[in-house]
Amino acid sequence: MGTKNKPGDFDCYANAHPDEPMFVLLGRDPLAGLLVRLWAEARSALGGTSEEKLAEAYRCADAMGVWATDCGKSLAAARAALHLVMLARTEDRARPSSPGFASGVESGEEPREEPGGERGEERGEEREEVQDTLGDALPREMARVRDDILPAYVGIGANGAFGAIMIRIKLDAAAKALAEGDIVAMVRLYQELKDLKG
After folding, report:
1. CB 77 within 8 A of CB 30
2. What is the pLDDT along the chain (198 residues), one digit of tens a residue?
3. What is the CA radius of gyration of the chain?
């Protein structure tokens, strides 16, 4: 883990190429530890990153969380903000007022009417979903899968047994992620459960 006075083994300044873009997160930022942990999870999934570098990132994330708390910052508020952003990304919903989210309508382009004149109603539903939080959406998906999808697999009998086992594993993992506030696992399991169809 690096600091200003003691750069770490993977110091970005030392390793950066001339004029290479970089963005520095400070421990006082309540989002910093969450984002570093998210980076480590994603790089682990992507592969090609050494275990030593990942371990340092996790240590840095923990230390950042402690530092931000000592500075009086709210980690709970930071988690809630990140939940909203990641849920919107997961849902691939549009928020025209937020940079980085595609509105689905190019500048100057007339909105396309959906068949049956339902476009306005559907947009309203999308806006409501964007306002939702991951902490609300994941339990809803868990209930849907538990009450609708799992019984369908169980009803198939032996042919659906393996699928039922895998669904129960996902549900147990989702419950654990919720209890521990593991945002990375919550986002991943939310999408996995959402992809399950009857």
Report:
1. yes
2. 567 676 666 677 777 889 889 888 999 999 999 899 888 888 888 888 899 999 999 999 999 999 999 999 988 888 777 766 666 665 554 444 444 434 344 444 444 444 445 544 554 454 444 345 777 888 889 999 999 999 988 888 888 888 888 898 989 888 888 888 888 888 888 889 998 886
3. 21
pTM exceeding 0.85? no
Residues with Cβ within 8 Å of residue 20, at least 6 apart in sequence: none
| 39: number of Cβ within 10 Å | 16
Evaluate the CA torsion angle 68, 71, 77, 78 in order and state its sign: negative
- Token duo for residue 177: 């992620």
Q: How far apart are CA 147 and CA 133, in angstroms?
A: 21
DSSP the chain: ---SSS--TT-HHHHPPTT-------TTSTTHHHHHHHHHHHHHHH----HHHHHHHHHHHHHHHHHHHHTT--HHHHHHHHHHHHHHHHHT---TTSTTS--SS-TTPPPPPPGGG-HHHHHHHHHHHHHS-HHHHHHHHHHHIIIIIHHHHHHHGGGGHHHHHHHHHHHHHHHHHHHHT-HHHHHHHHHHHHT---
Distance CA 175, CA 142 (A): 8
